[in-house]
Design brief:
The structure is a single chain. Helix content is 41%, strand content 20%. The protein is an alpha/beta fold. It has 5 domains: 146 residues, Rossmann fold; 160 residues, Rossmann fold (3-Layer(aba) Sandwich), CATH 3.40.50.261; 163 residues, Rossmann fold, CATH 3.40.50; 160 residues, 2-Layer Sandwich (D-amino Acid Aminotransferase, Chain A, domain 1), CATH 3.30.470; 72 residues, Dna Ligase, domain 1, CATH 3.30.1490.20. Bound molecules: adenosine-5'-diphosphate and magnesium ion.
Length: 710
C-alpha cells in the first residue's frame, strides 16, 4: 500500500521542479517574434522588456536581424545559449515540427499561444496529438495551446510571458484561470484594488500542464499566500480533487462557482439525475475539497484582499469597534449571516474600557468609541479585543470624523495590525478626494490593513476568512467500509445485468440492497393470485400490493400501488383489478409489509462521467419533484457528510419532529446513505439508484420502493 503513495509524491515533486522552467525561466525564446507593433509576437517581447524581465530574451525570426532592439535569431539552433522557455506564436500546422526542434535544443517548457488545435475540430485535434507526441518524446512540458501564458512578479524574475496589459505589483495572491478573459479581468480587479499579485497562469486548451499542476505548484510556492481559481469544468475531475484537497489545507483557494462540468452535464431521466441538474458537480467538488466558492467575482477579489494581508482566524467569534452607529448595525447583520457571532466582553475588558473610553462611549460588543474618539481610544479598544480569549477577529468601522486626528487613529490601527495577533478588516468611510484623508488611507494601506468602502463588503471579506478556517478544520474523515456484506450474491446480481442499460427487476433490487445491509420492508414476489395471498400471509397483514413490470415506472400514478390491505379478500380483489388494468406480459405482484406513519425520505445515486457518482438525500414521497428539497455529495460519503446531508435539507427540522411528534431515527438513515455510497463505489456499473421512499420511524428506517439502473 505504501509504494503508490510514495510514487505520487515523487511525481508531483518532479512536476513542481519542471514547472520552474515555466514560472522561473532564466532565458526565453519567442518563436514567431515579429516587428509588427500590433502582433502577439511583438507584444510579448514588449511586455517582457517593459516589466523588467531579469533573464535573456531571444526573438526567433528567419528574416529580421533584430526585434524591438534585441538581436533576433533565424532559428533556435542559432541561439548560442540554453533556453528554459519558448513562446510559440506560429501557425498551428508548423507547431509539431517546432516542438521537436525545441526538444532537440533542450528547451524544457513551451507556451503555445497559437490557436488552431483541439478547439478547431478534427484537423486541430490531429495537430495537437502530433505535437504532444513530440513533447513527450523529448520531455518538453506544454502550456496551452490557445492560451495567454504566465506571469511571475517575483523581482528575481519579473517574467511577463503574456500578451495582456495589466502590470501588477508583486504580492501574495496567485491566479490560475482556464479562461484568459476571466483571468485577465480578475488580475485587473486585484490591480484596481491595489492588491499585489504573485503569479498568474492561463492555460487555454490545457493539453499538458493542467489546472491541477499549476495549483500544485502554487501550493508549494512560498510566496503564494492565497490562490484564485477560475475554471469552467475539469478535464480530469479526479486529479483535480486530489490536488485541491491537499493544496486547500495549506492555503486558501478562492474560486468562482461558474460553469458546469462535463461530469455534471448529464441530465438523467430519473429523480436523482434530473434533481441533480447540470451544474451541481462543480460546487460539490469545491465543497468536498475545501475550496471557498464565490457567486460573485467582485466579492471574491475583495475577499482576496483580506487573505493577502491577514492571518486566518481561529474561530467565528468577532469583536466590532466602531466610531459611528449605523454602519456597525449593517456590518453586524452581514457578519451574523456569514456565520459569525459577537460574544459579550468580559468584566475585565469592560473595567479597562471604563478607564480609557470617553464617557459617551458604549462598552460592549460592538465597542462604540464615538466619533470624537481618537487614536488612544481606538488603541485601547483594539488592545482589549486582542486580549479577549473569546474573540477571534476584529471588525473596525472607521469614519474619518473631521474633528479628530484621523492619521493618529490609522497609526494605532496599524500598530496593532502589525502584531498579527488576530485578523482585522476595516470599513473605512471617507472622502478620498481630500488630501488629508488620502494620507490616512495610505497609512492604513501601507500598514497592511484591508480597507473597504462598504460595511457589507468588509463583513463579507471577514466572513470568507472565517469560512476558510471552518473548511480547513472540517475533517470529513474516511468513508466507512461496512463488513458482513454478501459480496458473492451482489456480484452475481450485478454481473447478470451488467451493461444492460436496464432497470433491475424488483427481486434483484431488494436482494442487492439486503446484501448491502440496507433494511428493506419484508417482501415477496408472486405471479398469480394464490401465491400473492400466500406471500401476504407469510409477511402478515396489513400488506401493500404493487404491480410489478419492467414498463411500470411511477406505479402509484397508474393505480399500481394498493396500501393497507387487511386480509386475503382485499388482496384478491386488488390483484384481479391490477390484472385487468395492466396487460404487461411480465406482470407480477409485489407484496410488501405495510409500514404506515413513517416520514418519507429519498436517497439516490446518479453516476457521473469522469467523477465518482453523486449521492442524493432529501424529503421523499410523491412530491419530491415539487419540493426538490434534496442535497448531494460526491461518493464515497463519509459519516460526517451523511450527517451533514440530513442537517442541510431545508426541512431538516422535520426530521427532529415538530409539534410534539417524535423525530426519526437519524442514525439508521445516516447508515443507509453510507451503505448506498459503498454499494455504488464497489459497483461503478450502477448508473442510477432511486430509493423513494425510505420510510423513517423513531427507532428504525426501511426502504419501501427502489429502482436500480445499470
Ligand atoms: P411509485 O413511486 O412507483 O409510485 P411507491 O412504491 O413509492 O410507488 O408507492 C407510492 C407511495 O405509496 C409511497 O410514496 C408511500 O406513500 C406509499 N407506500 C408504498 N409502499 C408502502 C409501504 N410498504 N408501507 C406504507 N406506505 C407505502
Ligand atoms: Mg416511489
Amino acid at each position: 500500500m505504501n509504494s503508490p503513495e510514495i510514487n505520487v509524491k515523487k511525481e508531483s515533486l518532479n512536476s513542481v521542479n519542471q514547472l520552474d522552467f515555466l514560472f522561473k525561466p532564466k532565458s526565453i525564446a519567442v518563436i514567431g517574434a515579429s516587428s509588427k507593433e500590433l502582433s502577439i509576437g511583438n507584444v510579448i517581447i514588449k511586455n517582457l522588456v517593459h516589466y523588467g524581465y531579469t533573464g535573456k530574451i531571444y526573438p526567433i525570426n528567419p528574416k529580421e536581424p533584430e526585434i524591438r532592439g534585441i538581436k533576433a535569431y533565424a532559428s533556435i539552433f542559432d541561439v548560442p545559449d540554453n533556453i528554459d522557455l519558448a513562446h510559440v506564436i506560429i501557425p498551428s500546422k508548423f507547431v509539431p515540427q517546432i516542438i521537436e526542434d525545441c526538444g532537440k535544443k533542450g528547451i524544457k517548457s513551451v507556451i503555445i499561444n497559437s490557436a488552431g488545435f483541439s478547439e478547431m475540430g478534427e484537423e486541430g485535434i490531429a495537430l495537437q496529438k502530433a505535437f504532444l507526441a513530440k513533447a513527450k518524446e523529448y520531455g518538453v512540458r506544454i502550456f496551452g495551446p490557445n492560451c495567454q501564458g504566465i506571469i511571475n512578479t517575483d523581482p528575481a524574475y519579473k517574467a511577463y510571458c503574456d500578451f495582456t496589459f495589466t502590470f501588477p505589483e508583486p504580492g501574495a495572491i496567485s491566479i490560475v484561470a482556464l479562461s484568459g478573459g476571466v483571468g485577465a479581468f480578475i488580475m485587473q480587479s486585484l490591480f484596481d484594488l491595489e492588491i499585489g499579485m504573485r503569479m498568474y497562469a492561463s492555460n487555454g486548451n490545457a493539453c499538458d500542464i493542467s489546472i491541477s499542476d499549476v495549483l500544485n505548484y502554487y501550493g508549494e510556492d512560498e510566496g503564494t499566500k492565497a490562490i484564485i481559481l477560475y475554471t469552467e469544468g475539469f478535464k480530469d475531475p479526479r486529479e483535480f480533487m486530489e490536488t485541491a484537497k491537499i493544496v486547500s489545507r495549506k492555503k486558501p483557494i478562492l474560486a468562482m462557482k461558474a460553469g458546469r462540468t462535463e461530469a455534471g452535464a448529464k441530465a438523467a431521466a430519473s429523480h436523482t439525475g434530473s434533481l441533480a441538474g447540470v451544474d451541481i458537480a462543480t460546487e460539490l467538488i469545491f465543497e468536498k475539497t475545501g475550496i471557498l466558492a464565490f457567486n460573485n467575482e467582485e466579492e471574491m477579489c475583495q475577499a482576496a484582499m483580506a487573505f493577502a494581508a491577514q492571518p486566518i482566524p481561529k474561530g467565528n467569534r468577532v469583536g466590532i469597534i466602531t466610531n459611528t452607529g449605523g454602519p456597525a448595525v449593517i456590518a453586524t447583520d452581514e457578519l451574523v449571516s456569514a456565520g459569525l457571532v459577537l460574544p459579550a466582553l468580559s468584566e475585565r475588558a469592560i473595567n479597562i474600557l471604563k478607564e480609557t473610553m470617553l464617557p459617551e462611549a458604549s462598552l460592549g460588543n460592538p465597542i462604540d468609541v464615538v466619533a470624537t474618539g481618537g487614536g488612544n481610544h481606538f488603541r485601547s479598544a483594539l488592545d482589549v479585543m486582542m486580549d479577549e480569549d473569546t474573540i477571534d477577529s476584529v471588525f473596525i468601522n472607521f469614519v474619518t470624523a473631521p474633528f479628530t486626528d484621523t492619521d493618529e487613529v490609522a497609526k494605532n490601527i496599524v500598530e496593532v495590525n502589525k502584531m498579527k495577533r488576530k485578523p482585522i478588516v476595516c470599513n473605512f468611510m471617507t472622502n478620498l478626494s481630500m488630501e488629508r484623508f488620502q494620507k490616512t488611507a495610505k497609512i492604513l494601506k501601507d500598514g497592511g490593513v484591508p480597507c473597504y468602502s462598504f460595511p457589507t463588503t468588509a463583513a463579507k471579506a471577514l466572513g470568507a476568512l472565517c469560512k476558510y478556517h471552518k473548511l480547513r478544520s472540517r475533517n470529513i474523515g474516511e468513508a466507512k467500509k461496512f463488513t458482513g456484506i454478501d459480496k458473492t450474491k451482489s456480484s452475481e446480481i450485478i454481473n447478470d445485468a451488467k451493461d444492460s442499460g436496464k432497470f433491475l427487476s424488483s427481486d434483484k433490487v431488494y436482494s442487492l440492497l439486503s446484501a448491502y445491509g440496507i433494511p428493506v420492508a419484508d417482501w415477496r414476489i408472486a405471479s398469480d393470485i394464490e401465491k400473492t395471498i400466500t406471500g401476504a400471509n407469510e409477511i402478515g397483514f396489513p400488506v401493500v400490493i404493487k404491480a410489478d413490470a419492467e414498463s411500470l415506472v411511477h406505479k402509484s400514478d397508474l393505480g399500481g400501488v394498493a396500501v393497507n390491505l387487511k386480509n386475503a379478500d382485499e388482496v384478491r380483489a386488488v390483484v384481479e383489478k391490477m390484472k385487468k388494468n395492466f396487460d404487461a406480459e411480465d406482470l407480477k405482484f409485489f407484496v410488501q409489509k405495510f409500514l404506515p406513519g413513517g416520514k418519507e425520505l429519498i436517497a439516490g445515486v446518479s453516476a457521473q462521467r469522469d467523477l465518482e457518482p453523486l449521492i442524493m438525500f432529501g424529503l421523499g414521497g410523491i412530491y419530491v419533484e415539487v419540493l426538490k428539497d434534496v442535497v448531494f455529495k460526491i461518493a464515497p460519503v463519509t459519516e460526517l457528510e451523511a450527517k451533514e446531508m440530513l442537517s442541510s435539507i431545508k426541512a431538516s427540522k422535520l426530521l427532529d419532529g415538530v409539534r410534539g411528534e417524535k423525530g426519526i431515527h437519524k442514525e439508521s438513515v445516516i447508515e443507509i446513505i453510507q451503505r448506498l455510497s459503498q454499494l455504488v463505489t464497489d459497483f461503478p456499473e450502477i448508473k442510477e439508484v432511486d430509493m423513494n421512499p425510505i420510510m423513517a420511524f423513531h427507532d428504525k428506517a426501511f426502504v419501501v420502493d427502489a429502482r436500480i439502473r445499470m
